[in-house]
Every structure is written in C-alpha cells, then in structure tokens.
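## retry 2 of 3
previous attempt timed out at serialization; input unchanged, resubmitting
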Amino acid sequence: MAGHRGNATLARRGLADPDAGVRAAAVGALARLDELRAADVEAALADDSPALRRRAVEVALRARGRGTRSSLPRAVTDALGDPDPLVVVAAAWFLAERRTRTAVPVLASLATGHDDARCREAAVAALGAIGDPAGLPAVLGALQDSPTVRRRATVALAGFDDPRVTPALRAATGDRDWQVRQAAGELLDEPEQGSSPDT
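## retry succeeded, writing output
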C-alpha cells in the first residue's frame, strides 16, 4: 500500500522487517516509487530468502543512484550463480537489458553448463542481446541443446556479425524442431524446410 500511496518512508522501513515477504514487498514498492537504490538491490541479493532475491533482481533495472553502473551490475552478475533458477533467469534478463559485456564469460559458462534448461535458455538470450563475439561459441554450442534452448540460440544468432552465423542458421533449417527451422528460415529470409509441427 505504501508503494501505491507514495509513502517511500514507510516502504523503506519494510526493508528491515523480519518477514521476507514484507521485505520483498518493500523492494517492489520502492521500485514503483522510483526510490529504489542500487544498495537496496545489492542487500536484497545477499538475503537468505529466494523470494526476496527474485524480487530484487526483477526490479533491479528501476534502481537509481550511486552504483547502478558499477556495483549493481557486478552484484547481478554474481546472482547468475544463485541456487534459485528464477533468480538466475531474472539476472540474465537484467544483464541483457543493460548489455553488460563484463558478464559474457559467466553467461557463456551458464549457457553450456547449467543443469536447468531455463537458465541455459536465459543465458543464451542474454548473449544474443549483448552481441559480444566472445559469447558466440556458447550460442553455437546451444544449437545442440534441448528444443527450447535451440530455439533461443537460433534467434540469438541474429545478434552476431560473424561468418559462422550463416552456416549455423542453414544447418538449423534442417533441425528436427519446426520452430527452430522456422526461426532459422526467417533469419535467412528463406522458407523453412517443412512447415507442419512435429508429431
């Protein structure tokens, strides 16, 4: 309610509440009021509550003030190692939106080595959004992953200007997943091979 009523003082007080749900609500309220600070997000990312860490990284783009271009991207990059997959997914999204090139090595490792497909998919998407050449090998490797990751990797190839991209897209037009074929064909501006969904 503090966030909707413009009461930033009350919202900030909630950051120290013993209940993690209240702390998460306070972070969201401060973001809504444009009163969220990088330090607030960083503190929340160090909290024991997965729900609070998720909420903090989801609204991290709304953070203002000192550290938003330095310590905050580092803290969110560290969150790529969080045990909660949804924190990892949200962190990858933040880094993609901010085009954080310093996160590319960690994202590349995630894209090829995380045991949760959602995290691999998010990392691949972030690498494509950032478009750093160092991320391309991981995206190419992801073309051998599960269908959802392969689809994301195919689209992510559009973010790179590299001679390896076109051959990879041509190979993807023969993928067993029709959505991968479709995405590759669209990027090549060619019709896909077989238009009906797999059975």
